[in-house]
Amino acid sequence: MSTSQSGNYGRRKHYIPLESNPEVFTELIHTLGVSSSLSFQDVYSLADPDLLSLVPRPVFGLVLIFPAMEDYDRILEEDKKTRPNAYTGKGEDEPVIWFEQTIGNACGLYGLLHCICNGPARQYLKPDSTILNLLKICVPLDPTERALALEASEKVEYAHAHAGKSGHTAAPDPKDDVEHHYVAFVTSNTGNGDVYEMDGMKQGPLKTDVTLKEGEDLLTEAGRNLIKAFIEREQGRSIGFSLMALVKT
């Protein structure tokens, strides 16, 4: 695996990679100050109605975990060619809050932050919490300054370190190369139903072709088809995808 895939190349900081475990993700968002009424849950199928029925609704965000093999570098290069000018948005008027990934092996953290900082989930951030105070600092900043502000947050770093060691498997070294990457799918803060792909390694937030109708969430047919299309881009070259949903319980 290349260093760009693991998020290690030229990074000032490295975090212990988060285990792709909804319990770990839930513990971390609660530590950061998200209401206990929200949690992450595994999504076991995108097609089986019985398995889909196990996921509480509504779904406020999705985190897709996928094998970031050599092909991912090609995807990042294609994104740069398609969008040569990196995202520069800032302020509350932006449709989504996006964080550029500048911390090595922290793609799980960025996926989690994109879920809780966008769409309906923002209504569940506790007053004077770590995450709400971080947003107050970060929202007015451009992506470069925002990335530095996140790096500087000792509370986020401490919470992440604890979560990184709390999984069911032995925690790897923060500078180890990892084989999986995390990307989030969220809805716009404008309330218009637009769905965005949020990957901190790319040029910025990516508005998809999906707009949810009133009463729909990210696990209705349009959202599921978006995830299926993302997976099918691998054309059978990779296995090991998994999906977690941020839900109200």
Written account of the structure:
This protein is of the alpha+beta class and 249 residues long. Helix content is 33%, strand content 18%. It is built from 9 helices and 8 strands. It has helices at 3-6, 22-32, 49-52, 71-82, 107-116, 130-138, 143-152, 154-164, 221-232, and strands at residues 13-14, 38-43, 59-67, 103-104, 180-187, 194-198, 206-211, 242-248. The protein has a 6-stranded antiparallel β-sheet, sandwiched between helices. The chain has a two-stranded parallel sheet with strand order 1-4. α2 (22-32) runs antiparallel to α8. The longest helix is centred in the first third of the chain and has 12 residues, at 71-82. The chain starts with a helix and ends with a strand.
Structural features:
249 residues, alpha+beta, 6-stranded antiparallel β-sheet, two-stranded parallel sheet, 8 strands, 18% strand, globular, disordered N terminus
